[in-house]
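Ops channel
N.P.: pipeline sanity check, posting one input/output pair.
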């Protein structure tokens, strides 16, 4: 019997093969297929579609190339009037979805259906999300592509050399090696940088987008050494982000930022002075607080960067580069920071802070009888502009919504417990009575039919 069934399925499969070929999708007839940018706010996709019968359905499939946990295809449904030839248009508004970094590669295609059921799919097209205001130039070297518009080639080569130096340091210090080319976009000022992407704080000096392999930086207009360090700093974020990419875990801020500052070399003089004073005055931030996020206040943020540098410096120079690489690999595999530290170094976050404080001659960690409050992470760009620029930003106060439930149980729209239970009991009794009534009606109806059949 099983043999007969198997043969039957095989025969059905052979019979269906020509039918699949007969119903193959026809070739799409798509012209004037383009995207128009109003950078950095919108990208408008448009095309003219044609078919042998009236087109009844049109879908724009689009997205951008980036490192993700799974393939993501966004879909948009432009409005149109059914016809054999239709013009369609749809606008991607970055002000609503969130801005993409300059240099992102966008892709799109059109999928449409006619009234006979024929489905058409256009070729996939790509475009680079970038402004046309500046005349961009590009210089490359190994895994780096540096794009700039202001300054001569020697200036660009200097920044490219700094980037190469940063890649070498990261390979030696933490075993971080690029697996794909990294694009660095250099803006001639902080203002130009802020104009290139939406929703950036006004004191942003540079940002890294590891999932896109993109770095954007603004020049300090005079401090060449700082500009070199910015490039190195942001490249480190890309390397760390790629190496530790995981859908299960995030790196603690002190580790990611500490690696980025450590890749630059030593602390600058102003940061070192501030750090030394914090040690002397016992004003260091706890390592647990640095795990979640840095303060938006400039002076506290710079201290957090310096302290993170010092912690990473202690781990690498005391325990070796191999253990740092192992720590990053363990976090990439989805492990939390504390068990990872215990397994690799033999201490947890508090133990790390104790050992680190001892190594820099700081006062012992304060131990509180109360549970440590967990800080709320706030967004901080991956580097701030060079000191001397207008950086002070005061966060806007906001009200936290409160619950409408009152503590006495009688107000705020929530009924007392006894009333809730009483109503629940009444509902159950009513349901039971209705159920008994319905069953009685059904039984009586069946009995009447049975008597009629007996009389017949």
């Amino acid at each position: 019997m099983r043999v007969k069934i198997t043969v039957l399925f095989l025969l059905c499969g052979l019979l269906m093969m020509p039918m699949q070929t007969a119903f193959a999708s026809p070739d799409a007839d798509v012209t004037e297929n383009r995207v128009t940018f109003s950078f950095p706010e919108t990208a408008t996709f448009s095309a003219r579609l044609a078919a042998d019968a009236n087109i009844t359905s049109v879908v724009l499939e689009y997205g951008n190339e980036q490192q993700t946990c799974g393939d993501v295809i966004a879909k948009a449904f432009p409005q149109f009037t059914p016809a054999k030839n239709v013009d369609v248009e749809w606008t991607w508004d970055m002000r609503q979805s969130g801005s993409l970094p300059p240099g992102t590669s966008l892709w799109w295609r059109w999928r449409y259906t006619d009234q006979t059921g024929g489905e058409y799919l256009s070729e996939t097209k790509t475009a680079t999300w970038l402004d046309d205001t500046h005349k961009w130039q590009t210089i490359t070297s190994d895994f780096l592509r540096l794009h700039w518009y202001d300054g001569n080639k020697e200036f660009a080569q200097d920044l490219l050399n700094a980037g190469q130096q940063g890649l070498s340091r990261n390979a030696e210090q933490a075993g971080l090696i690029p697996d794909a080319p990294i694009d660095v976009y250099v803006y001639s000022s902080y203002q130009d940088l802020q104009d290139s992407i939406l929703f950036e704080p006004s004191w942003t000096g540079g940002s890294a987008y590891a999932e896109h392999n993109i770095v954007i930086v603004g020049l300090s207009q005079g401090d060449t050494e700082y500009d070199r360090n910015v490039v190195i700093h942001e490249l480190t974020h890309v390397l760390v982000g790629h190496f530790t990419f995981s859908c299960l875990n995030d790196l603690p801020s002190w580790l990611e930022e500490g690696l980025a500052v450590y890749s630059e070399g030593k602390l600058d003089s102003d940061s070192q002075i501030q750090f030394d004073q914090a040690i002397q005055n016992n004003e260091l931030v706890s390592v647990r607080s640095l795990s979640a996020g840095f303060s938006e206040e400039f002076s506290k943020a710079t201290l957090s960067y310096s302290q993170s540098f010092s912690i990473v410096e202690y781990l690498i120079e005391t325990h070796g580069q191999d253990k740092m690489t192992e720590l990053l690999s363990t976090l990439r595999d989805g492990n939390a920071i504390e068990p990872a530290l215990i397994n690799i170094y033999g201490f947890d976050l508090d133990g790390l802070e104790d050992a680190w404080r001892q190594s820099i001659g700081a006062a012992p960690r304060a131990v509180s009888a109360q549970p440590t409050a967990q800080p709320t992470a706030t967004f901080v760009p991956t580097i701030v502009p060079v000191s001397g620029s207008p950086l002070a930003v005061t966060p806007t106060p906001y009200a936290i919504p409160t619950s409408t439930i009152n503590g006495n149980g009688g107000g705020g729209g929530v009924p007392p417990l006894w009333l809730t239970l009483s109503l629940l009991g009444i509902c159950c009794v009513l349901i039971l009575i209705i159920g008994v009534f319905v069953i009685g009606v059904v039984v009586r109806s069946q009995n009447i039919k049975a008597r009629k059949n007996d009389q017949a």
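N.P.: looks fine end to end. The mean pLDDT is 82.
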